[in-house]
Amino acid sequence: MPKITEIFFDCDNTLVLSEVLAFEACADLANEILESRGISDRYTGEQLIKDFVGQNFRGMMISLQAKYKFEMEQDELEMYVKKEEDKVIAKLEAKANPCVGANEQLEKLAAEKKYHMAVVSSSALRRVVASIKKVGQDKYFDKDMVFSAATSLEKPTSKPDPAIYLHALKVCGKTASETVTVEDSKSGALSAIRAGIPTIGYVGSYPPEEQSEMATRLKDLGVKIIMKDWSEFPKCLEFLENGPIETQSSL
């Protein structure tokens, strides 16, 4: 059984409590786009989270076009992607907090020096860097070890596409079986699972009444173990290191 030497972390609502802030900004822009098309529906940040959690803004806009049957020119899409990035970063720099207990676990891992660590996110690189910097996590990750599906790839994409995880594995020089990742969303977990990476499902950022349902959904996708609080991380990691870790097949 390959030894685990690499830990990947999703960023939004896994390391940093950023989704509510980000989706507030996204809702404003999504509504602006819908209004410009004469579509009467409007979104709140909360509704967007329910429909699109785990996707980046580009992925959301592609889904929105499919749902409401309209098309955006590439130039217009890129303009809104940039606009969203700026609005979200401003909110994060003002208000973002770390997920409860995440900083303590990162500090322990860094002190142990047993694992290499990287961030693997759907969000734009500038946003991810701003998030981890605001909450004091940037010191745990080398600058070139923060990966973004929106920025780091030749062709931008979003989770659940496994491309960003496959890219991170390649850059880090690791195989999926010597890697573990932590994800909080269905699209994020599916991205990691499709890349063959054993996955810890973190549900601590969800409201208490939603945690059990989310845990079931993540387990149904193929997540190996559920973590409700970051204090459980060492036990989850131990479970994966000592249990049978087979490469998970594509779904």
Structure report:
One of its GO terms (molecular function) is phosphatase activity. It is a single chain. The chain is α/β, with parallel strands linked by helices and 251 residues long. It folds into 2 domains: 6-17 and 97-242, Rossmann fold (3-Layer(aba) Sandwich), CATH 3.40.50; 19-95. The protein is built from 10 helices and 8 strands. The protein has a 6-stranded parallel β-sheet, with helices on both faces. Strands 2-3 form a two-stranded antiparallel ribbon. α9 (208-221) links the parallel β7 and β8 (225-227). The two termini are 23 Å apart. Residues 245-251 have low confidence and may be disordered.
Layout: helices, strands, pairs:
Elements: E1 6-9, E2 16-17, H1 19-36, H2 45-52, H3 57-68, H4 74-95, E3 97-98, H5 102-112, E4 116-121, H6 125-134, E5 146-148, H7 163-172, E6 179-183, H8 186-194, E7 199-202, H9 208-221, E8 225-227, H10 233-242
Parallel strand pairs: 1-4, 1-6, 4-5, 6-7, 7-8
Antiparallel strand pairs: 2-3
Helix pairs in contact: 1-2, 1-4, 4-6
Query: Could you give the order of strands across the largest sheet?
Result: 5-4-1-6-7-8
In angstroms, what separates the terminal alpha carbons? 23 Å
Instruction: Count up the domains.
Output: 2
Name the structural class.
Answer: alpha/beta
Give the C-alpha Rg.
18 Å
Oligomer description: single chain
CATH homologous superfamily designation of the largest domain? HAD superfamily/HAD-like
Question: Treating each run of at least 4 consecutive H or I residues as one helix, how many helices?
Answer: 10
Mean pLDDT across all residues, rounded?
93
- Low-confidence spans: 245-251
CATH architecture of the largest domain: 3-Layer(aba) Sandwich
Main sheet summary: 6 strands, parallel
CATH class membership of the largest domain: Alpha Beta
Q: Please trace the helix and strand order, writing H or E for each element.
A: EEHHHHEHEHEHEHEHEH
- CATH T-level topology of the largest domain: Rossmann fold
Could you estimate the helical fraction of the residues in percent? 40-55%
Give me the count of strands: 8
Strand content: 5-15%
What is the molecular shape?
Answer: globular
